[in-house]
Amino acid sequence: MTVRVSSNAARLVTQVLAGEVWPPLGDRHGFRVDPDGDAFLLPGMGGVTLGVHCGDPATGYAADHLEPGLSVRHRDTAANFALQYLSCVGNTVLVTSGPAAGAEGFVIGQHAYVLCDLPEQALSAVTTGDQVTVFAVGQGLVLDDHPGIRVKNVSPRLLNALAGGTGAGGRLDVHVAARVPAEAIGAGSGMASEYANTDLMGAYEVGGDDLSLGLHGLRIGDIVALDGQDHRFGRGYREGWVTIGVISTGSGRLFGHGPGPSTLLSGPAEAFNLIDDRDANLAVLATAPTGASA
């Protein structure tokens, strides 16, 4: 594998983390209200979501806070925080119980759960309660030639596919499928950038494109540039900064809860050379994870 960006990847360790596919949850107040005041009751978070994978649209579904693939957590609170904080996008995921035991996929981001994409045939054989192993490696990654850029939640394998090397003026080349304006950043601001993700403001499933800041075309797995975002030590607005994220969740019906990017890289805007590329998606960048090396 050709290394396109120098890092400390060879000095990282891999931990084997355990979780299980968590069921969808609800309460006796089943209905919620959309931006137009209409009540809705729709599937969304938790469990196994079939038919939605990296490369598929992130909007347009009759769903609320859509979590594609497997929604994985640990029933012990402290172990679940470790699973959230240490799992990195691109890490290999292995199903270890149930009819789909032995099936492999990869982490696509964090939300209320660690989200994992698997091939559809394997996904359809998984059920809630099935055990899942994550080969967690990536936290602690440092870019040798780009000290101003903080790496977050990125497996070494994905980093090499994501970062195109050092370009003109010493800037890091990064291909992005879309650019997200600062005013679109919503829920998730102020949280630790290793935990969950950031919802993009807007009303994506009602009201038309004028309420989504032109972001209706986002896909699950898209690599995106978040303008004005500093995610080094939390998530917040900082003029002149850029954060690179990956769309890990689909949109919801609640006002202000659009597709959600998980944080990957963050630094001053002048540290990046952003290259618009519609193919900058995990469906292309993370299609062949291989155990601990992912």
Automatic annotation (TrEMBL):
<dbReference type="Pfam" id="PF20999">
    <property type="entry name" value="DUF4438_C"/>
</dbReference>
<dbReference type="InterPro" id="IPR044909">
    <property type="entry name" value="TM_1086_sf"/>
</dbReference>
<dbReference type="InterPro" id="IPR029433">
    <property type="entry name" value="DUF4438_N"/>
</dbReference>
<dbReference type="InterPro" id="IPR044910">
    <property type="entry name" value="TM_1086_SG_dom"/>
</dbReference>
<dbReference type="Pfam" id="PF14505">
    <property type="entry name" value="DUF4438"/>
</dbReference>
<feature type="domain" description="DUF4438">
    <location>
        <begin position="31"/>
        <end position="159"/>
    </location>
</feature>
<dbReference type="InterPro" id="IPR048399">
    <property type="entry name" value="DUF4438_C"/>
</dbReference>
<protein>
    <submittedName>
        <fullName>DUF4438 domain-containing protein</fullName>
    </submittedName>
</protein>
<feature type="domain" description="DUF4438">
    <location>
        <begin position="169"/>
        <end position="283"/>
    </location>
</feature>
